Prior knowledge:
With about 650 residues, the chain is an alpha+beta fold. About 15% of the residues lie in helices and about 30% in strands. Strands 1, 3, 4, 6, 7, 8, 9, 10, 22, 23 and 24 form an eleven-stranded mixed beta sheet that branches. It has a six-stranded antiparallel beta sheet with strand order 11-21-12-17-14-15.
Amino acid sequence: MKNIVLILIAFGFTFFVRAEVALPNIFNDNMMFQRDKPVKIWGKADAAEKIEVAFNGQLLKTQANPSGKWEVTLKPMTYGGPYSLIVKGENTIVLQNILIGDVWICSGQSNMEFPVKYVKDAKSEMAKANYPEIRSFTVKRNMAYYPLEGLEGDWTECNPETVGQYSAVGYFFARKVHEETGIPIALINTSWGGTQIETWTDTKAYKKLPAEYWEHYQDGVFGKDSVRFIASQEKAQKSFYEAKRIMEDSKDERYFFPRKTSEFKTCKMPLRWDRSELKNIDGVVWFYTSIDLPATAVPNIGILNLGPIDQKDMVWINGKSVGGSETYMEERSYKIPKGILQEGNNTIAVRLDDNGGNGGFVGKEEDLFLQLDNKKYSLAGDWTYRKGITSDMFNYEPNARNLYPGLLYNAMINPLLRFKIKGILWYQGEHNVGRSRQYRTLFSNMIKDWRKKWREDLPFYWVQLPNYMKTDEKPKRSAWAELREAQTAALALPKTGEAVIIDVGEADDIHPKNKQDVGLRLALIALNKDYGRKHLVYSGPTLKSVKFRGSKVIVSFDHTKSGLKTIDSSSLVKGFAIAGADKKFVWAKAKIVKDKVIVESDQIVKPLFIRYAWGNNPETNLYNNENLPACPFRTDNLSQ
Length: 640
């Protein structure tokens, strides 16, 4: 074998001083191959090196081409395992515990990325997650100006120790499908919080769109400047994450309790990063305050309450640790042992670490307090803060992933195209709110292009945006409702499905913790459409027709197999608004009559338009008897 030093980190291969046979990172222990489809296996070796691949009774032979690349294709196999994969050149690679089953791509932004360890009832969910035939591969975050061939990540077998890092939506989907069918299920989680659909779209496909779709990038970077910028961001990103890793591994006291208070700036607490100069910053920030206590309070055991925090915190009082948590948006309440508090001045230091999204203290003023016996000392108001290790210190722009179309497609989708899959799950849209008209085109365009790239008409199922923010007192235009409508429009494409979740969101949290229902509703779609469970109702009521009869509106629905109901047993259906010719909407009274809903209002003599669940956080209660919520709709044609 020739001595070749070939370092192609971008292609995801591991090479030694000698160019031994090597596999991309997508091939590893605990992995899964897609059943019932030809399976490609590829890698690198010396030019002309002879390669043998053995798997599940198949033995294939090939030879590396002049550039050292090789590929073989296994015949389709039924689900089962575990098996071993043996790849032999002048060296031998043996991969163990490989299954054959169904592989689903999980992509989108933070609500797809959201891990099991942060969901509601996380501890009990993780404790019972003994599913050796569920596997997950999490693609490491990366962006690239040009399409890459390889990526980084690891396969794991599902158990209580590993499942905490799985995409929660993906896991609850996989659990339901696996329990119903017995088929092994794998998830390839390739998602990144705070990302818009453009960055997940192949640049070549995007460039075919009309000029108006480039207006969003007028303040971005183009051409050669783009190449240099993205290269610098890739380097800055690695430096930032490495600095954070060193901080976490270090025992250096400066990382755990900085005392140079002169470096701190003043802020009002509670502080959300997105409402301060910390906006668009990832990393570690220190927060600091002090409180004077009387001698009578010192002997008592106290409670320090900081409210919910995004994302990870460590807390000290007078230089002594009193607690910390990595649980997203969990209420922080720490018991203060005797001997820590002192008469007079007491210092409180909080090290907050956020990696993606907004970050910060996201509760209310009344959530911040020190409690001693029955007396509460408010901690709201003026604090000071100081950056520890933050992205801007390395000139890393966390939003760089959105600055040009295709950056995440190139790095986190393109390398997967040779890997056979069953279908795609998608949860994204929050970052495109406000541009729903464009999203109609962008979403369908991306679905069709991904299918073209995979050379298959793959099932593509997505999650509609949840309810979020305040409930409207009066009907009005809603950017979130318009984006949901744009998502629903993609159902016109074949082999698509939508999970409606306007009932599981949280007004104050863009990352609702109820991912169980989200995964379940996606699983119902797949079970019905892909696994032969035609008896399962997979959708809530969707608009079938509307008839205007005098002062009444008669609404008919599809997906009402065993009838309609209100989930709260109310005699009235919430969430309907109607309007006359002036399109001035008012809330209306609605009731279920057999398989229809009759809607009317004393304020509208002759209704001509109707909306349902039209708002950022609509108040609704209409379901089918299978407990699936009705999909929002409107019949008016407001400009978007």
